Amino acid sequence: MPHRTTRSSDVGSPAELAALLGERGYLADDGLTTACYLALRMGRPLFLEGEAGVGKTELAKTLAAVLGAPLIRLQCYEGLDASQALYDWDFARQLLHLKAAEATGATDAATLEGELYDRRFLIARPLLRALETQPSVLLVDEIDRADDEFEAFLLEVLSDFTISVPELGTISAPVPPVVVVTSNRTRDVHDALKRRCLYHWLEHPSFEREVAILLRRLPGCTETLAADVADAARRLRGAGLVKPPGVAETLDWAEALLTLGARDLDPGLAAATLGAVLKYREDQQAVLRDGVLHRA
Amino acid sequence: MPDPANAAPRERDDADDHDTKGNGAGGSRVLAATMTGFARTLRAAGVGADHQRTQGMLRALRHLDAADREQVYWAGRLTLCAGPDDIPRYDRCFAAYFGGERARPSRGAPPVTIVRHTVTPGGPDGGEGADGHATPATASRTEVLRTRDVSRVTPAELAEIHRLMALLRVPRERRRSRRFTPAHRGRLDVGRTVKETLRQGGEPARLRRMTHRTRPRRVVLLADVSGSMAPYADTLLRFAHALVRSEPRATEVYSVGTRLTRVTAELRHRDPGAAMREVSRVIPDWSGGTRLGEELKEFLDGGSAARGAVVVIASDGWERGDPALLGAQMARLSRLARRVVWVNPHKGREGYQPLTGGMRAALPYVDAFVAGHSLAAFQELAERLSHA
């Protein structure tokens, strides 16, 4: 289904943005909508924290779709450094260029060196790519997995939206990209970075919102099934499990049930498809033992 | 420090100064005063709503409707809060401040003081002893003190033990990082080799090599501060301080009892006395009961701080909660952590048997069960943490 795209400066109010996100199947509540709206209007990165599966990454994808901008993703991991996040020189091509120049008899060393550090030999990694792409949505995913040194480095890039390459000069973004930083909170992210961002703690959706999400995302899902699944998800989240299901798991589960032709949450089918929603053996055992799926 | 209320009203904005909603020039000054007052209330409640964040909030409000309570709520929450712990405090302050009554700018009950004596850290002999005269720490005296149970020493001896504790250095065992560092032997560093070749105009240079860097392995200490641990809590937290000071980036400390509280930041203070005061201020459940199982669950649910770390639990295992829950969480922990060390102050006593329900439930999942009643015991523990 074709959607029109919107420039970030054309979004007039949080409610308008909520409608645009909703058109693409992302149903955000007031807090998240306001957060996104402010991120667009103030040009500030949005720092999203919350349990896995509440829809942090999905939001960045949907924002990109709304703005008609490419989503540039920087997946963080331990040991991530500037040459993987920012840019790197394509040494092999530089060497080939040098050999080719030699073969044709080029001798002027200064010119040759100038050619070697040409933009075409620069490999843009996500951060540089985001600065060079207008417009773009930059997703810095799971920042808590990167080393803390990386945060200081990121802070610098996100403060000025400028990257300086010693051999080339400064590359800056005329319009900063829309930045979404996510964290699963496995460790504390430095306050200086958070201060630069808008901070939002994302909760699991309310029952009504989750029903609406299921209906919106899964064509063919009956209202009974959506309500049953959302209700079961709510109870699973309150059951003290190792890994309570997020929206992503609820959607998977409903989809599995739909595939099996369920029209409501039949206990037998529910037990058979439990693997779509609970990914720990202890959790599955506890749920079946305590009868969490059976309504009181 | 400049008063934010004077500096606040209208600072330059990021080129979007013109779209102000619902507040004129006069209104914006009133708004700024109101909002900086609100930020002050938040700070008093323990939310780090500093000047920069307050400015952020005022900027955010320009894009929103400052007359709409809901929008003011979100403008503040998105800019002034920095973590999930801040949110309930924010909600309370918001309700109080904008509900007509002002939140009391106090932290509630006065902090419990656990610092029993003030010791000058690093002083020549730990300052004046409590017995009135300075006692030089001779080698033999120190040796005797080393093995004494900290719950059975005089205040002066305890002060001496704490002084020695402050000098304790706890290096960490190293683990391999994904990053590389130049080295003489190891994998070929293509980048550096080619770069050097380029510099020499294409002449093949010496082959450069690299190897994996190493990083200190993280230690997570869960320190039980419940009533039954009271005689040991002070010394235990001083050990925690020495841990944090040795490797500030590779240490996490939580207090457990009836509430799980992260105290790492408080322990980063250089001076042990100051660190202890900070810690005593933030721990809400001194000398209460123990619900280790629930807190361990909260700790494990909160993320994977335990993943790959050496986790040290310092507790006597007097569990008031369900030992089965504790056992289940210990099983989870043992799968996540590199090693689990249980420190029990009573283990140093002769004839001690781990018979409490909590201890019995936890022991099958513990890699090392050690004593924690004396300086010597803590030194041994430090040794354990610095070697694989």
Automatic annotation (TrEMBL), chain A:
InterPro entries per record: AAA+_ATPase, ATPase_dyneun-rel_AAA, CbbQ/NirQ/NorQ/GpvN, P-loop_NTPase
Signal sequence extent: none
CDD domains membership: AAA (cd00009)
Gene Ontology MF terms in the entry: ATP binding; ATP hydrolysis activity
Record domain AAA+ ATPase: where: 42-217
The name this protein goes by in its record: MoxR-like ATPase
From TrEMBL, chain B:
Taxonomic source organism: Sphaerisporangium rubeum
UniProt-recorded name of the protein: VWA domain-containing protein
Lineage: Bacteria, Bacillati, Actinomycetota, Actinomycetes, Streptosporangiales
UniProt-annotated stretches for the region Disordered: 1-29, 119-139
Any single Pfam family the record assigns to this protein: VWA_CoxE
Family annotation (SUPFAM superfamilies): vWA-like
The organism's place on the tree of life at top rank: Bacteria
Ranges of Basic and acidic residues composition bias in the record: 9-21
